[in-house]
Each structure stands twice: as structure tokens, then as C-alpha cells.
Amino acid sequence: MQVLTESLQLNRDGALHHLLSTEGLPRPLIERILTTADGFIAVGTREVKSVPLLRGRSVFNLFFENSTRTRTTFEIASKRLSADVYNLNIAASSTAKGESLLDTIDNLTAMQADIFVVRHSQGGAPYLIARHLAPHVHVVNAGDGRHAHPTQALLDLYTIRHYKGAFPSLSVAVVGDILNSRVARSDIHALLAMGVTDLRAVGPLTLLPTGLEQMGVRVCTRLEEGIRNADVIIMLRLQSERMRGALLPSAQEYFRNYGLTPQALRHAKPDCIVMHPGPMNRGVEIDSTVADGPHSVILPQVSFGIAVRMAVLSMVASSQRSGSHRAEAAAPGSTVPHARANAGESTARLG
Ligand code: MLT
Predict the structure, then answer these.
(1) Which atom of ligand 1 is nearest to the CA of 181?
(2) Which domain range does residue 86 map to?
(3) Proportion of the chain above pLDDT 90, given as a percent
(4) One domain for residues 199 and 131
(5) Smallest CA separation from ligand 1 atom 2, residue
(6) Which protein residue has the closest C-alpha to ligand 1 atom 5?
(7) If I label 175, which of 123, 240, 268, 288 is the partner at 20 to 30 A Cα–Cα?
(8) Co-location of 132 and 179 in the same domain
């Protein structure tokens, strides 16, 4: 299914048309996103924090699942690019009356939407939309089920590059509920694409998906071993909303074994950075002393997220879909492919 992912995300010139997943994103393209983000960092420090790149374009934020950081930073990013931004209030929309996702999309497209930023509890929802859209409209995945959260992974890469430089020499540990985490999946694909060879997945066996070793990820069930001499530790939240059945004895027990405390952190490199996508559960996966301590780069991650999302939005907006399958599908009387709700899930090799 790799081909499906790539052909949906990239146009024939290899430019980013939609951003759906980090899986299959070529390293030079990831580097281009990070370099483009570099240019937008300065915009956030200026008195006038905007550039006219998306003036006249309409960005619709469709968050079918809760979000604080992702939704707000997408909104800020779009506004800094001078786009017109519309935040659909899902609870007050016709979705609550049973309107289908694609009917909602069609109606918003009729309002001249240019970009949809989509978060959905169903893995694959942004793929369904991408296959359905007219060639001039773009979709950016802001998190779909357990499947992918590509802009989080890209801002994680940005943060790592900012503090640590070149990727191949780094030891990176991803710790926690990897089974249920779209951030972990997207991070793993992105870090491997950037050439990280010492990548560890750390957590209890019940929260580790199968297939990690085959991808070149070292699996560790003990925290001390998993973070030993690590340059980067990415902590994950326990995704209790996605857990099926009891996978853990208790949050206290989890913290005792996998919580990142100052004592545990001593096993990592002295200059190790600690990351977390948020929202954090203090006292469950991370101790407050670490979350607020000198190793933590959790808040800079949020700031970098704005520049990275500006980069993604500006890049998709400037790509053209030449001769896309959708152009054919949109012809009068043709059948729009509605039935690919899980197209994205099928590309997710983990778990
Ligand atoms: C996500 O939406 O996946 C978050 O950024 C991470 C989390 O919810 O734990």
C-alpha cells in the first residue's frame, strides 16, 4: 500500500500535494519541509507576524476529535500565512445530525475551501477525503485514529535537529503507549527516513505493537535499558481512550516502571533532550520535575510546530495535481470512490 500513500501525497513532480503520513515521505522532501520551516521561524519573532503567501486562500479546520496544541497552532500557522481560516464547530454542525463526512466536505468545498486540516478518530479518514477532493483542494492530516500524526512527527524532527543536529548519529528512545499512539507511528517512520539507526521503542509488552524489529527498531521492556545513553527521549501519553481492555494494572504501577523521573533520566546522556507531544499526564508517564526541568524541550516543540505547519500548508498550497485520478472521478456521471474509509489504516504497518 506504500504506492497508494505516495501517489496520494505527492504529485507527479514529487511535490507535497496532501500530507497524510510520514510513511513513504522521501528524505529530501522531509528536509525541504524542515528548511522551509526555518524560514518561518523568524516570522514569529517579528512585530508583524504574517506573510502574504496564502492570502485569499481558505483553510478549514475540521477537528472531529479534541485538540489544544494541534488545532491552535494550525490556526495560528494559517493566519500567519494570511489565509482565511474557518474552524468548523463539529458539535454544532450537521455531522451531529448524521451528515456523512464526504457530504460535509462537498459542502465546504462548495464554499471554495482550498485546504482541509482534518483530525478524526477513524484511521484513514484524511485518505478518504484526499481521494474524494477536486485536484486543486488539499488535505493535511492532523491526526487520524491510531494511524498517523505527520505534522507532530515533522515538528519533532525539527526540534531534534534544532537541539542535536545530524540524525544518523543519534540514539532516540520512544517511550510509552506505542501500540495506541499515532505520534509514535509517525515519529518512527520519520526518524527512520532521516537515517536514525539507534531507535528504541520502550514500554510494557502489552503496549508494544508487533513488527517493530522488522523495521529496524529495538524493542525494550525496561525503561532504564531503553533510555540508556539516549540523546533524545520522546515520551508518550497513555491513550486510554484507544485501549481495548485492561492493558495495564494501574497508572501508579505504570509510573513506577515507565514514568520518566530524575532518577531514571540519569541513565540517558547528560545532555539528553526530553520531548512529549502533549497532553502530558504528570505523575503517569512523566514526573513534573522532568517535564519542567532543564532537559525538557516540550514547550519549544509547541513553538516550532507553528513554523513547521506553516511550511506544510504553504507547500501543499503551492503544489498542482497534474492529471490526478480525482480529475477523472469528478467527471459528470462518474463514481466517486466513497468506500475507502480505512485506506490509511492499511498503510500503517505497525500494530
Ligand atoms: C495526538 O493527538 O495524538 C496527541 O498529540 C498526542 C496524544 O494525544 O497523546
Answers:
(1) 3
(2) 2-148+305-334
(3) 81
(4) no
(5) 143
(6) 277
(7) 123
(8) no
Does 20 share its domain with 104? yes
**DSSP reduced 3-state for 200:** strand
Bridge partners (DSSP) of residue 201 are: 174, 219
Residue 350 has pLDDT above 80, yes or no: no
> What pTM value is reported for the model?
0.90
* Domain co-membership, 133 together with 207: no
pLDDT digits (tens, 9 = 90+) for 70-107: 999 999 999 999 999 999 988 777 887 888 999 999 99
User: Within a domain: residue 123?
Assistant: yes
Q: Establish if 194 belongs to a structural domain.
A: yes
Distance 347 CA to ligand 1 centre (A): 20
Q: Which of 152, 280, 308 to mutate to test the pocket of ligand 1 (most atoms within 8 A of CB)?
A: 152
The CA 300 to ligand 1 mean position distance, Å, reads: 16
CATH number (domain holding residue 172): 3.40.50.1370
Max Cα-Cα span within the chain: 65
> How many domains would you assign to the chain?
2
Judge if 274 and 188 occupy the same domain. Answer: yes
Pocket test for ligand 1, best of 182, 240, 241, 284 (most atoms within 8 A of CB): 182
What beta strand segments (E) does the chain contain? 58-63, 84-87, 115-120, 138-144, 171-175, 198-202, 218-220, 232-235, 273-275
In this structure, the answer to whether residues 116 and 180 fall within a common structural domain is no
Convert the pLDDT of each residue in 45-74 to its tens digit: 999 999 999 999 999 999 999 999 999 999
Using 50, 70 and 90 to split pLDDT, how confident is the model at 236? very high
> Rounded to whole angstroms, what are the CA distances from 252 to 233, 256, 346, 349?
21, 6, 35, 31
At 3, list the grid cell: 504506492
Same domain, yes or no: 64 and 42: yes
How many Cβ atoms sit within 10 Å of the Cβ of residue 227? 27
304 grid coordinates: 516550532
Whether 348 is covered by a domain: the verdict is no
Residues having CB within 6 Å of any atom of ligand 1: 143, 149, 152, 182-183, 237, 239, 277
Of all protein residues, the one whose alpha carbon is nearest to atom 9 of ligand 1 is 237
In a shared domain, residues 275 and 317: no
